[in-house]
Amino acid sequence: MSEKGTENDAESNLDQDQTGDVEEVGELVVEETDGDGDSEDLDPLAQALLEVESYKDRYLRAAAELDNFRKRTARTRSEVREETLRDALLQFAPVMDNMRRALDQDTQGVDLLKEGIELIYDQLCSAFSTYGLEPIEAIDSVFDPNLHEAMMEVADPERNPGTVIQEMEKGYTLNGKVVRPSRVVVSKVVEEEDSPDGG
User: Fold this and answer.
1) Which end of the chain has fewer surrounding CB within 10 Å, N or C?
2) Paired sense of beta strands 164-169 and 182-188, if any
3) Which pTM does this prediction carry?
4) Architecture of domain 134-190
5) Sequence ranges of the domains in the chain
């Protein structure tokens, strides 16, 4: 017999085996479904499928809850860190105020001291900046209640009303949020005095 004939016989036998397997499965299904009309034999499978769906639903819910928990935890951690950092950095704000006042003093004979203080002040500002703490520029700006706290108003004919003309204490923002407003003196409208003759 040729090799081709052998291959055809093998394929024929394989097809017959597969067909026989399918027929056996079909007979089993028929026997189970025909029987006496009871579907009790199918209940375990249906129950198993229901349990699978239940477990799948529980898994999806648990996965969603875990994802939400991770997001909440990350957000809370970030907020706590920012609040802690803000409180720590604000402890240095009065030091910077005092140093700035010392630098503003017009004293003679202390140039080296002033240079040293200026250097320390610049270093502090640089260190604060790396943590997101930035000074609020107030002088000559329009008064903004979101950034400034008016300590007093002073008549100034050379400035527009509502202009910050003096900064008593510097304000700061942390990552763009105001953590301490600038305490400032604001210009106000100059009131016209009555003429001496009452006219």
Assistant:
1) C
2) antiparallel
3) 0.49
4) Roll (2.30)
5) 134-190
